Amino acid sequence: VLLLLVAAFLLPLPYDPIEPDVGPIMGAPSVSHLFGTDQLGRDVFSRTIAAGRLDIVLVLASVGLTVVVGVGLGLAVSSRTVFAERLMRVLDVFQALPLLVLAMALVSVSGNSLVLVAVSVAMIGFPTFVRLVRAESLALRESRFIEAAVSIGADRRRILVHHMLPNVGGIILVNAAVCASRAILVIAGLSFLGIGVQPPTASWGQMIEQGIEGITSGQWWVWAFPGLFVLILGACFNRVADGLDTLQAGVGRG
User: What is the CA radius of gyration of the chain?
Assistant: First the structure.
């Protein structure tokens, strides 16, 4: 993940990613164009790196929003009050909706706003966060250190922020990594469908869509390299989640 972040944000671009005719039309990978060129003669390597900058920012923004909203609501309903139970039933109804279709409609109606792309991806992921944080918080309420905090007069806000939040930090990190893996696929999927990032700005999903015609003609490089980056980044976030989960389990046993 760190290597991809360094490549996306620090690697200099050899060509302008939106400048046409910097090389031959649909030129194969070569020394001057490492990933070849596309239908307009644009450098695929430069476009892949530039697309990574935008897509990774969208992933981080959506995951950050998911964590803030999901953890906040999860802690807020970490009780068995009537309000908490009703809010969870509303969440059940929300999860029953086709969230991806709803996200597509929301972004399309908004004029393909990138802000709403991040909001829409967060909307898909935050219900899981709410449920996980609430479940962990309800279990923690039975712990002796929570009972001790209540007995010495700690208010609800202090218990949530200083006692519960640090103890659900592990599950938050694990699921943030899982959400990041899912988010890169959703963002690429939206771009593939022409929703969100619009030409000539580069995005991985859009580049894959533009290279589909080359599948049968042997011009594979237009879609293969951005597709490979989506695959690698998604797999990396999944491995991070696995590692964090293993670490958390080891700490718990310790």
Answer: 22
